[in-house]
């Protein structure tokens, strides 16, 4: 029962939200709230009257398991706010569960996406990828290595699992969060060494962004934030379309001492992909393209 209802205030929807927070607590701890609340002086279980008094003052609140996921702690804490006006509305809860509950319960298994998209180990950057589309509309790319023209656009799924090695791509790449953990991206403009960091993920109220674009020619590395999930799935749109001749890894020797922490994103010496690097023709003809 919500504290304000115990005090005799009119029952509102906010009281139901509090009750929902109590249910979340029970799901987390597998215990009835306050069942282990003890009197500090006697060490005996609190009486019902004492529990009600502490609940109304805010001195006693339902708890959550220490290992509870961050979304459960945040949503539960808001639902159990002593101030009814600070509790989320039913609409807010619906939105929160879209961004918290579904990814945690349904999207935490990297193997599910690797199997069902399906995805291949990335031969250079670590993680996994699957090509989805390569435009047949061509554009000239004078001065670039490789073929004289490229498609206007290509798209892929890419899985950071759990680190993407720092590298460069000539093309601009737009990134869109899909599932799993939020991902921290670090980008560096090599001309000025200015560093940009952001988090691609679902929690906009925490400062995450749902999409961003990395300028062509910039260094880019990434890592998942939630190591209990240990992967983050994104979509990428590349323009001009991706070509292996347009990308290269950033070596530790390329990174100045002023940016030494970025070296942890460099590909380790001796690292090898689980599969042989695909040649460009196989990349273009892969069954993941939209022409299938």
From TrEMBL:
TM helices/strands, residue ranges: none
UniProt xrefs under InterPro entries: Cupin_DUF985, Kinase-like_dom_sf, Prot_kinase_dom, RmlC-like_jellyroll, RmlC_Cupin_sf, YML079W-like
PROSITE patterns, per the entry: PROTEIN_KINASE_DOM
SUPFAM superfamilies: Protein kinase-like (PK-like), RmlC-like cupins
Pfam families the UniProt entry points to: Cupin_5 (PF06172), Pkinase (PF00069)
Protein kinase domain ranges (all copies): 1-105
Single GO term (MF): ATP binding
Name of this protein: Protein kinase domain-containing protein
Organism in which the protein naturally occurs: Saprolegnia parasitica (strain CBS 223.65)
Taxonomic path: Eukaryota, Sar, Stramenopiles, Oomycota, Saprolegniomycetes
């Amino acid at each position: 029962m919500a504290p304000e209802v115990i005090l005799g205030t009119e029952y509102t929807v906010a009281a139901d939200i509090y009750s929902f927070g109590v249910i979340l607590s029970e799901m987390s701890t597998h215990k009835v709230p306050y069942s282990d609340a003890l009197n500090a002086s006697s060490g005996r279980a609190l009486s019902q009257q004492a529990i009600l008094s502490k609940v109304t003052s805010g001195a006693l609140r339902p708890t959550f398991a220490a290992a509870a996921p961050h979304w459960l702690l945040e949503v539960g804490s808001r639902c159990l706010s002593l101030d009814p006006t600070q509790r989320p509305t039913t609409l807010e809860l619906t939105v929160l569960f879209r961004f918290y509950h579904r990814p945690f319960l349904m999207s935490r298994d990297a193997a599910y996406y690797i199997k069902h998209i399906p995805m291949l180990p990335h031969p250079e950057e670590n993680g996994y990828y699957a090509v989805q589309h390569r435009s047949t509309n061509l554009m000239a790319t004078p001065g670039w290595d490789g073929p004289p023209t490229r498609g206007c656009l290509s798209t892929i799924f890419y899985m950071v699992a759990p680190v993407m090695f720092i590298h460069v791509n000539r093309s601009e790449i737009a990134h869109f969060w899909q599932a799993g953990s939020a991902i921290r991206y670090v980008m560096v403009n090599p001309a000025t060494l200015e560093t940009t960091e952001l988090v691609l993920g679902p929690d906009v109220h925490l400062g995450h962004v749902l999409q961003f674009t990395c300028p062509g020619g910039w260094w880019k590395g990434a890592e998942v934030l939630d190591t209990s999930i240990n992967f983050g799935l994104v979509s990428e749109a590349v323009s001009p379309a991706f070509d292996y001749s347009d990308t290269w890894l950033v070596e530790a020797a390329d990174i100045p001492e002023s940016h030494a922490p970025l070296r942890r994103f460099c590909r380790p010496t001796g690292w090898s992909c689980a599969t042989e690097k695909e040649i460009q023709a196989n990349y273009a003809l892969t069954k993941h393209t939209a022409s299938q």
